[in-house]
TrEMBL record:
One of its GO terms (biological process) is glutathione metabolic process. Keywords: Transferase. PANTHER family: GLUTATHIONE S-TRANSFERASE (PTHR11571), HEMATOPOIETIC PROSTAGLANDIN D SYNTHASE (PTHR11571:SF224). This is glutathione transferase. Residues 84-207 form the GST C-terminal domain. It is an enzyme of class 2 (transferase). GO terms for molecular function: glutathione transferase activity. The lineage of its organism: Eukaryota, Metazoa, Ecdysozoa, Nematoda, Chromadorea. Its EC number is 2.5.1.18. Pfam families: GST_C_3, GST_N. Belongs to the GST superfamily. Sigma family.
């Protein structure tokens, strides 16, 4: 029997789509949450091969890089297109587009959470809004008529994007409300029956 341990900080951020994929698949795992005070020492240990989090241990073997882990657990839980190679590639294409948006807006995200000394209002204007204008129409064009990205069922891309919208709905609601399709998408993902227990019991995190 395969055993899983996910090591990350007590944040949603890069680990949340991984946790939700595992929850959707009904896969039990050890959810190890690292404190910021413990991180400097742990970062240098053999337990963290690349010196970054998250790390997913699969029966003791580490798998690094958040997007690699997300794709892996998506395949394990049937959230990746389930063997239809073209659908797998299509979802991966959308995932990369969503990931590019997240990376482009990261300075604004960090400023909102006090992780850099930049002015959030300035970065909203100079970083966030241009990224919205660039990426939202492209991502929106990939949304299916039933407000999900997967054809016929939800995918890991839906979980990933819903988490991004959930955060920015709280911090830049005036912008997100201009895209009601994404608001509906996030609402639908939060209502997925297989995720209800997870949402009801997950620890509350700032981001």
């Amino acid at each position: 029997m395969t055993c899983y341990e996910l090591v990350y900080f007590d944040f949603y951020f890069r680990a949340e789509p991984i946790r939700q994929c595992l929850a959707y698949g009904g896969i039990k795992y050890k959810d190890t949450r690292v404190t910021l005070s413990d991180w400097p020492a742990l970062k240098k240990s053999p337990k963290i091969p690349y010196g970054t989090l998250p790390v997913l241990y699969i029966s003791g073997k580490p798998l690094c890089e958040s997007h690699t882990i997300t794709r892996y657990v998506a395949e394990v839980t049937g959230l990746d297109g389930e063997g239809d190679l073209l659908e797998v590639a299509r979802l991966d294409q959308i995932y990369e587009l969503c990931r590019e948006f997240q990376e482009a807006t990261q300075p604004y995200f960090f400023a909102l959470n006090g992780l850099n000394k930049e002015d959030p209002a300035k970065l909203k204007s100079e970083v966030f809004l241009p990224a919205v204008d660039k990426y939202f129409p492209k991502i929106l064009s990939e949304l299916q008529p039933n407000y999900i990205f997967g054809k016929g069922k939800i995918s890991y891309v839906d979980l990933y994007w819903a988490n991004i919208i959930e955060f920015y709905k709280r911090t830049a609601r005036d912008v997100i409300e201009k895209y009601p399709q994404f608001m509906e998408h996030e609402r639908l993902i939060k209502a997925v029956p297989k995720l209800q227990q997870y949402f009801a019991t997950r620890p509350k995190c700032p981001f």
